Structures are given as C-alpha cells and as structure tokens.
Amino acid sequence: MAWCGAVGLAISFVVLSTVNAHGVITQITVEGQQYAGYEPSKAWQQPAPDLAGWSIPEDTDLGPIEPPKYANPDIICHIGATPGKAYVTVAAGSQVNLKWSSWPDSHHGPVLDYLASCPNGDCTTVDKTQLKFIKIAESGLLDDSTPPGFWGADKLLQAGASWTVTIPQCVAPGNYVLRTEIIALHGAFDIDKAQNYPQCINLKVTGSGTRSLASTGEPATQFYKNTDPGIQVGIYNPLPNYVIPGPPLFSCDGSSGGIGGGANSTSSTGSSGSLGMGSSMGSGPSMGMGSSMGSSTSTGMGSMSTGSFGSSMFRRSRFRKS
User: Fold this and answer.
1) DSSP of 175-222
2) How far apart are alpha carbons 31 and 217 in whole angstroms?
3) What pLDDT shows up at residue 260?
4) Is residue 304 within 8 Å of residue 109, measured between CB atoms?
C-alpha cells in the first residue's frame, strides 16, 4: 500500500510539473464566489470531485490542438475533454473571471470566448459534438508598434494569468458551456503550427434575458482553417492589421462589432481597451518576471521580445512547438 501511494504521488508530481508548460483554468470567480476549476492532480482523486470545469485527463502534457485537428472533436474543449459535473452560477450581464495556472510569455496570440446552449438542457451529460457556439468576446493584437506586438494573451499574463469575460445580458436563463481559448502564434509563420488551447466550463445563467441560443451558433469544429490569415501568420514581422479568426462576434442588438455595440470587442489593428479582458481579479501574488522566450509564469508580466528576428532560419530554429 505504501508503494502504491508513493507511485501515485510520483505520478501526481509529474503531472503537476507539466502545468508550468501552458496551464489550465484552475479557478472561476463570479461576484466574489470562487469555484474550483480542473487541475491534472484531480484526475487521481477518489472519488473525483464534481467540477464545473471540463476534465482533460488524456492531455497529460497540457499540449496544444494544432490545425490538422481543427475538424476533430478535441478542438471543442481540448484533448479527450469530458463534461464538467457541476455549474458556475452567473447572471446574464455579469462577469466571469478565469484564473489560469500559468501561461508562457513567448506564446503571443489572441484570446477568444464562446458560449453554447446545451441541447438537452443538461451540460453535465452533453454530447460535445452537438454544441453550437457563438463568439461573445475576442482580444487580438492590441499594440503592433514593435514585433511581435502586445496581444490578448500578453494582457492575460500581465493581469496575473487572469481573464474576465462578460456574459451577454440578453441571454435567456439556462445551462450553457463557456468555451475560452488562447491561440499561440509564436510558430505560426509555418502552416499548421498555430497552437490552440481551449478550455470549457459549465454555466448556469440566471436573469431576465430572453435571447435563446438553441438555434444559434456553429460547431467548434468549423471555426478555423489552417490557412486563415489569423491562423497562419508571422508575428515577428511588422503586422499592421491582424484578422482575429473564428466566427463574427455575437450582438444582443443584432448589429456587428460585439455585444451591445462592442463591449467585449477588441480591435485587431493595435488599439486597446477591451472589456473582454479583466483585471487580475482572483490572481495570486506576483511570482516574479519571466525572462526567457521559452519560460512560463503563473503571475506577473513576462518579458516580451522587442526586436525583429533577422532570418527566417533563426526564427524557425528558435520558435518551435513547446
């Protein structure tokens, strides 16, 4: 028994050590109420805890989904994702804060948020391939003055690996899946080298909204193509205009440009000021500054490259998948 316990602890240590690679959403906060998210160590707990965050026990290295798998169900909520067994309660029009365990400072790219109504009303047993999502927020290239630029993912890291999204006020009460995603573009100058990191959380939306999402949206397997200009892109070259990938933003008033006139929309041409990005609510104390291009940090602002890289050969050798 002692030997089995030692093996279990060793496995847990290996799994936990991989969290520093890219990260998972470990905490969700709504109106001061905190909910536990999924963590790899929870896969070894017996009985397994009921969490609102979807479990991804098959993704032991917390690696990405890459373009060759864009039509695969793994792009929906990550590798082998299974539904959460609980819900986070949030009123329509309120904010949901998502705390990542870590994020590498070299992994620049957009952050996108989607929402889907569960077809049978029960997100804990839903067939993920039946989920149809609307995009409710996006944050792309916020400052293009110096390649690789300052991105939604950099702002998330600057806020202590914390991200806040507002649930559209018009959404009708019911059970939904919130899908949040970071797309890392550090190697995306090569085709099929973008890296997608989706995470899903069950929400129980309350309030007086009347907009049903039952017949709205599209499957996540149809969001992206490997040749989309926001997917195959060289961010270490000047990039005056970045096209955020995926479907258009949902709007409660039916107009383009975001919810209720763009509350969660972020310009892709270098401007900042997205309300889709939150403060460091729920984040922990700073753990120091990341310094190397390949390092990761769970809090604090990682250093960013401010120079352009001369030859494509150097870029290709340095910014491979990590």
Assistant:
1) EEEEEEEEEE-TTTTSTT--EEEEEEEEEEEESS--B--TT--B-GGG
2) 27
3) 30
4) no
